[in-house]
Amino acid sequence: MDTKQQIHGLRPILEAIESGEEISKIYFLKEGNGVLFNQLKFAAKKAGIGTSFVPEEKLYKLTKENHQGAVAVLSPISYSNLEEVLEEANLEENPQFLLLDGVTDVGNYGAIIRTAECTGVAAIIVSEKGSAPINGVVVKTSAGAVFNIPICKVNHLKDAIYLMQAYGIQTMGASEKAEKSIYQTDLNIPLALVMGSEDRGINPSTLKILDQTFSLPMLGKIASLNVSVACGAMLYEAVRQRQS
Fewest C-beta in 10 Å: which of 31, 98, 222, 235? Predict the structure, then answer.
């Protein structure tokens, strides 16, 4: 990882948080402890920064320096405020939003951002926990699109869904149990598409609160698509409907 995109050491990371530095994620040593270590964990939680607790080998892959049990990944972007984004949105133009429910692979994350920008998505919404950090890999795989689209980080994705519904935005997601396919679903409306994680899809409790679900036709022997490919298929079907 580019050392310019990270901070290592307990005190430097704590000072970065206190100074308002945009931190995408903090990796903590799984067995870490101590007064300063716990102080940093509390500060990270209070600031809404995503965290992961990992073995020491992972930390040494991130940096060869004395990490003291913590490495912070700096965000190359400033996150947008979801409420401000929604206030500025013109619902008469049928804006399209994208919510990511636990996408953790940085390659997939970057590819999704790239496709979202190409299809005119108004904003991407991610949860502070269980989401991939925005790092150099994401910037590269997004082909720089990460700098051209608002990305909002929220405490809980469900709260973001309820907020969008309150604004009159239809929330939808793919489910193999859905009665109709995406091609039978009207996407030419104010729309928020929810994409699930690579391994489990959309969380069942999240799926229950969506306004609609649809299926993606699967004609082969493999029953699932890569999340970035599935996202591309959905976003471009929405584009097709808007232009037809």
Answer: 222
